[in-house]
Each structure stands twice: as C-alpha cells, then as structure tokens.
Design brief:
The protein is an alpha/beta fold and about 140 residues long. It has a single domain, classed as 3-Layer(aba) Sandwich (Glutaredoxin), CATH 3.40.30.10. It is built from 5 helices and 5 strands; from the N terminus they run H-E-H-E-H-E-H-E-E-H. It has a 5-stranded mixed β-sheet with strand order 1-3-2-4-5, with helices on both faces. Helix 3 links the parallel strand 2 (about 35-45) and strand 3. It starts with a helix and ends with a helix.
Length: about 140
C-alpha cells in the first residue's frame, strides 16, 4: 500500500478534471451498474501512468463532443478493495495497472491494458479513447 502523500497529487490530477473517485467496493458497484457509459481508469504510481495514461484520459474527456456518462477512477495499491471489485467487473481481462476501461450498461466494450499504455504518448491514448467514445457513447 502506497502512502497517501504519494498518491494524493496523482488522484487530484484526475479529480480536478471531474473524475469521480471510487474508494470502496460499494462505490464501484453503484457506478458500474448504472445504465449508460462509464470510463473507469485504474490509476497507479508507475511512470507510464504519469507519462501517458493520466494525461491521456484527461485529454480524451476534455477534448471531445462525445464522452461517457460517468468518468471514474480508483487507485491501485491504495484503494485496494475498490480496485479488487473493479477488476471483477473487468473480467476476463487480467489485473492491470494502469488500465482504462469503457463500460456500457456494466459490460466492458473497450479496454486499454498496461501493455498498450507503456511507450505510447498521451495523445495516442486520448485518440484511442475518443474513437471508443464515438463508437459507444
């Protein structure tokens, strides 16, 4: 488990852009069972999260006419039980952090796992997500 002083700025980077934090398993279930589309970002302290994933998801939701009904985040290694519950919703995808999922009516319709984040610029991740928003939102 990471100390709060390390994760707080990384969480704030997203919440200051309108991302709703999912801190408990109940938070996860309450949001992901809603009708409509939900972007779920599993945040982490790794460099690919800071370098491309967080900036990419922020760019995607800020620079598009179509976007998910719900924009959410939870933090691997900190919001432990919430992340565990979120990963249940993302099956059959294996645990990955960071990870970015788009769900529609509680079902994963688009997934970006860590291996598709590493080494890619934020702009590429944002473009990938915007295309998914156009298709599913």
């Amino acid at each position: 488990m990471y100390p709060e002083y390390i994760v707080s700025p990384m969480k704030a980077e997203l919440t200051s852009h309108g991302f709703e934090e999912l801190l408990t398993p109940a938070d996860v279930d309450n949001v992901l069972k809603k009708e409509g589309t939900t972007l779920l970002f599993i945040n982490s302290v790794c460099g690919c999260s800071a370098g491309s994933a967080r900036p990419g998801v922020i760019m995607a939701v800020e620079n598009t006419t179509k976007k998910p009904d719900h924009i959410t985040t939870t933090f691997a290694g900190f919001d432990v039980e919430a992340v565990k519950q979120a990963r249940n919703w993302l099956l059959p995808y294996p645990p990955s952090s960071p990870a970015i999922a788009l769900l529609k009516d509680g079902k994963v319709v688009h997934m970006i796992e860590r291996q598709s984040i590493e080494g890619r610029p934020a702009q590429m991740i944002a473009a990938n997500l915007r295309q998914a928003f156009e298709t599913y939102c």
